[in-house]
Amino acid sequence: MFPPSSSIIFAAGLTGLAVAAPSSPFHKMGSFSIPQVRNAGYVRHGPTALARAYMKFGAAMPDSLFQILADFKISKRDTGSAAATPEQYDIQYLTPVSLGTPPQILNLDFDSGSSDLWVFSSETPASQVKGQAQYNPSKSSTSKEVSGATWDISYGDGSSSSGNVYTDVVNVGNATFAGQAVETAQQVSSSFTSDTNNDGLLGLAFSTINTVQPEQQKTFFDNIRDDLDSPVWTADLKHNEPGTYNFGFIDDSLYTGKIAYTDVDSSDGFWMITLDSYSVGSSTSNLSSRAFHHRPSTFPSPSDSASTPLTGIADTGTTLALLPDSVCTEYYSQVSSAANSQTAGGYVFDCDATLPDFTYTVGSTTITIPGEYINYAPVDTTGEQCFGGIQSDADIGFSIFGDIALKAAFVVFEDDGSSPRLGFAQKSL
């Protein structure tokens, strides 16, 4: 039992939610599981997925992508989530989240590459809303405006989303936090407006990159962490089928063998790690260097890749795996029809090509991304050429181990408040 001042509430789920008054005693929430659900309303498009990643991290987008995207509506946040929906072809996962009293249900992206919980709201101009559900703090008896607080997220193409900040009851799965910061949008960039299925975003990176000013706010996970049985959340994302996010426990039935852990460098607010090795097909490149932020600006040839550390972030909010140019070259050199296409904005190949597996190693655990996962989507309606799930990390400054890489593993995100680490284990694919 928690003392009366606790802001943690145990709830049975999103339906029939009963929110206890803050003065009531509470049960320890312990752990909870959030299964994904399928949403067939999204069309897979490789150049769009790549553009989202560049813009999300403020990297310069290759000129070739602008022409390609001219007639294609894009959303700058692509996610991996919980109660989530692989919007068609795994591009976006949406999670029903309850906000306020009585509950208002919004579908949010769960994103381990950001740290804001922001939503479309009653303060969002009608011209910027195209079917999204909107949180209305005036209709919640538990909402409180945070006086003087604002938030503002800018993206690599110069667009931004911004607004005010409230605290309110937020329920995810069976876990509820009564004083969660909810950032209400007063301005939404056109890319978010065009993403009619997405009502906002729930960040799962570290609270140090939360954008609320003048005082940063904690993520939902940071707020509930001490009341979980274990300070972990896990991602069991899958290829073309629903997966699961678990909080507070590790489900041993979801993986095989042992979980190998590696230290996380959270100094930039991300789940940043360095892989021990990678391989394309049968050729292995040992990555003995463990330096975190010293990837050279020009990459060596594949034969020299043993000296190149493969440092990147585990990001459920990015669809593709973005890797150094040298690694991309090494991979696609084994696909006879592959080319780095200016027309398509990235690496493409014949859709009927047999792609090699891509393997990465964490400690004693080897994770293999099947070649079929890397055949991401046809470039156009002809279905002759396909876009690769491995692309260049360009000017981002680090690699991004997005959903293409994470779906091949059972991944543990552990943060005890002082020594965060990531765990990887093999699983049945």
From TrEMBL:
Cysteine disulfide partners in this protein: 351-386
For the biological process aspect of GO, one term held by this record is: proteolysis
Keywords associated with the record = Aspartyl protease, Disulfide bond, Hydrolase, Protease, Signal
Ranges where the Peptidase A1 domain occurs? 93-425
Instruction: Give yes or no: UniProt keyword Ribosomal protein.
Output: no
Gene3D superfamilies reported in the protein's UniProt record: Acid Proteases
Report if keyword Methyltransferase is assigned. Answer: no
Q: Which residues form the active site?
A: 111, 315
User: Do you know which PROSITE patterns this protein is assigned to?
Assistant: ASP_PROTEASE, PEPTIDASE_A1
Q: Which GO terms describe its molecular function?
A: aspartic-type endopeptidase activity
- Signal peptide span per the entry? 1-20
**Alphabetical list of PANTHER family matching this protein:** ASPERGILLOPEPSIN-1-RELATED, BETA-SITE APP-CLEAVING ENZYME, ISOFORM A-RELATED
**Which protein family is it in?**
Belongs to the peptidase A1 family.
Name of the protein this chain belongs to: Aspartic peptidase domain-containing protein
| Source organism | Pseudomassariella vexata
